[in-house]
Write a structure and sequence with these properties.
alpha/beta, 9 helices, 60% helix, binds adenosine monophosphate
């Protein structure tokens, strides 16, 4: 059973590539960002607590996302594509423990590599149509800062486990997808 972490900066194309991978391998797509946005849209207690944090582009607390991930792994029967999780080394360590608890193993972590200027260009472009309240110039800068300070070290964590697959995230969507699939098939 495949269990994959799709990793990359905001704007790297994780959403687009997730959709293609999920369709190809019939995976369960677990996006912590989507789950959190649903809490906000449904105006739950949790949604009210996290709205201002997400609007600022900062990460929400680990406990919140870890609980969501624990539930998702417990109910999954087909293999998971993790999108937007783990976002820091503590979350990566917790994911290893949760997978072991449920008798599962992470197959690999695929990271999409895109230069900073291109990330900003893509996010500003997306901001015109996404309707996401965190797609504005100020928040984009904070999201990139959070990524560089907290999320980037996660790549080294998986590198040390021999599970890090680096893919060039620039170019045609279908070529990037083909490169990801080729790397997964090689495992
Ligand atoms: P995303 O859709 O992955 O870009 O996430 C949007 C926002 O949701 C982020 O800027 C964070 O505020 C929050 N978020 C998503 N995933 C996580 C996570 N694993 N840990 C903490 N915050 C997260």
């Amino acid at each position: 059973m495949l269990n994959i972490v799709l990793f990359g900066a905001p704007g790297a194309g994780k959403g687009t590539q997730s959709d293609l991978l999920v369709a190809k391998y019939n995976l369960n797509h677990i996006s912590t960002g989507d789950l959190l946005r649903k809490e906000i849209a449904d105006q739950t207690e949790l949604g009210k607590r996290i709205k201002s944090i997400m609007d600022s582009g900062s990460l929400v607390s680990d406990d919140i996302v870890v609980e969501m991930i624990d539930k998702a792994i417990a109910s999954d029967k087909q293999g998971i594509l993790f999108d937007g999780f783990p976002r820091n080394v503590a979350q990566a360590e917790t994911l290893d423990k949760l997978m072991a608890k449920h008798g599962r193993r992470l197959t690999c972590m695929v990271s999409l590599d895109v230069p900073r200027e291109e990330l900003i260009r893509r996010m500003l472009e997306r901001a015109k149509i996404s309707g996401r309240s965190d797609d504005n110039e100020e928040t984009i800068k904070n999201r990139l800062k959070e990524y560089e300070n907290k999320t980037l070290p996660v790549a080294a964590y998986y590198e040390a486990q021999g599970k890090h697959i680096k893919i060039n995230g620039e170019g045609k969507i279908e070529d990037i997808s083909a490169n990801i699939v080729a790397a997964i098939e090689k495992l």
